[in-house]
Amino acid sequence: MLDKNFLWGGAVAANQYEGAWNVDGKGISVADVMTKGSVNQPRQITDDVLHHQEYPNHLGIDFYHHYQEEIKLMAEMGFKCFRLSIAWSRIFPHGDEDKPNEAGLAFYDRVFAECWKYQMEPVVTLSHFEMPFYLAKHYGGWRNRKMIDFFLKFATTCFQRYQSKVKYWMTFNEINNLIDTDDPFNAWTGAGVLYQEDENVEQTMYQISHYQFVASALAVQAAKKISADNQVGCMLHFGPIYPASSQPLDQMASVKAMDRRFFFSDVQVRGAYPDYVKQLWKRHHLQLDITADDLATLHRGCVDYIGFSYYKSSVAEFDSKTDFKEKPNPHVSKSDWGWAIDPVGLRYILNVAYERYQKPLFIVENGLGAYDKLENNQVNDDYRIQYLQAHVVQMLKAIELDGVQVLGYTPWAAIDIVSASTGEMAKRYGLIYVNLPEVQQGKAGIYRKKSFAWYQKVIATNGECL
Length: 466
Ligand code: BG6
Description:
Helix 2 packs parallel to helix 4, helix 6 runs parallel beside helix 8 (201-226) and helix 8 (201-226) packs across helix 11 (292-300). The longest helix has 26 residues, at 201-226. The protein has one domain (7-460): Glycosidases (TIM Barrel), CATH 3.20.20. It has an eight-stranded parallel β-barrel, surrounded by five helices. It has a three-stranded mixed sheet with strand order 6-8-9, covered by helices on one side. The chain has helices spanning 14-17, 63-77, 88-91, 102-117, 133-139, 146-161, 184-191, 201-226, 248-270, 275-283, 292-300, 343-357, 382-400, 436-440, 450-460, and strands at 7-11, 81-85, 121-127, 168-172, 231-237, 241-243, 305-309, 314-319, 323-327, 333-334, 340-341, 361-365, 406-409, 432-434, 446-448. By secondary structure, the protein is an alpha/beta fold. It is globular, with a radius of gyration of 21 Å. It is built from 15 helices and 15 strands. The structure holds 6-O-phosphono-beta-D-glucopyranose (BG6). 6-O-phosphono-beta-D-glucopyranose is lined by residues 13, 16, 129, 173-174, 237, 309, 365, 369, 412, 419-422, 427. It holds the Pfam family Glyco_hydro_1. This is 6-phospho-beta-glucosidase. GO terms for molecular function: 6-phospho-beta-glucosidase activity.
């Protein structure tokens, strides 16, 4: 039997659904210069907002103007919580201002009030693939130590303003995506950085990560000072990378692959750098700007819980040059975008992460991106129900059989929004369907999918009826 306070809900991110990209004083964000892509065509990052380009995040689903109708539907589903993020560039349009933008702050006052109207607890990510474009362009993004102060100011402003409305916070969404330096998407959305051809990318990546760790640890301390009730978590992408075979070298490859994924939570949960990474820095002769004060800050700013996304698993095969090569998992099926579907992987990662940290875990993203069809105002997304049901079953096993402490479950996504990786609206995750042509005409254009009713029942029975 699940705890009665278990936080069932749904998740979204500001840049993917708010729209109103230049309304009420909002500045341009790094997501506002990303064009539309597809499963075969990566999104382009342009040097500014260019008139001949299409930028899907500019409109999103226009939550900014329809938040009341949308939150009402989430409440109808029975959401106990709503995971959303605050657009940094709405609060500090350039990022280096002395004073925040009052209109931006007031928008979230309205959103949080709407949530509480239905007793829905907001769970807030401070930086979810969105930071002021100005900071990326004029300061070099998180390459620059000054970012720590800018972020802390943004975080503190939010903690102060929303102290009676928000208790659950997360600092950086999927901070560990930074480790995958091959895809420019990761450093751009996560840190406002585009790597140069002639730079030591590995060194820059560890430096960026360090500044974010320090900023996150300072934010944890600031949040606690403002209210002892505040709970601040990290947020990681936790896809298991299993050994490709029972060969000892593949087993070792999996350990090394998972160390790279866990490196970020190791620092944010334990407050210190793990030995394996210190050895790696030595071997690779990396020179990092890490001060004694920084290390003390990390130690004092450990997170309270671990938020994570779970979508897919993969496998690691031994490779003599790089320790491991990550490959697709041949034992599981795939979504239309090639993402592995592996419900047992959720129970697996819950166990592994809980054994590693003994801290509460919060599944803040899990879901299926699919092509949905609206016919006669209905969407029969049985495939999504099947996906979510299979994952909830595994989550319940982790809680009830394995004793893992899980705070809540917020599937991705509460409502259809723009896909982060492809910029498409066609890659839908929501329990609520959004008809974009209607949104373009100024309407909300929202419809309950079949999964809406299914999830409503799950929440009403606290997971008893799946
Ligand atoms: C997570 C992100 O990586 O995956 C979300 O935190 C994102 O922002 C989600 O939308 C699904 O990815 P995508 O690319 O299919 O939208």
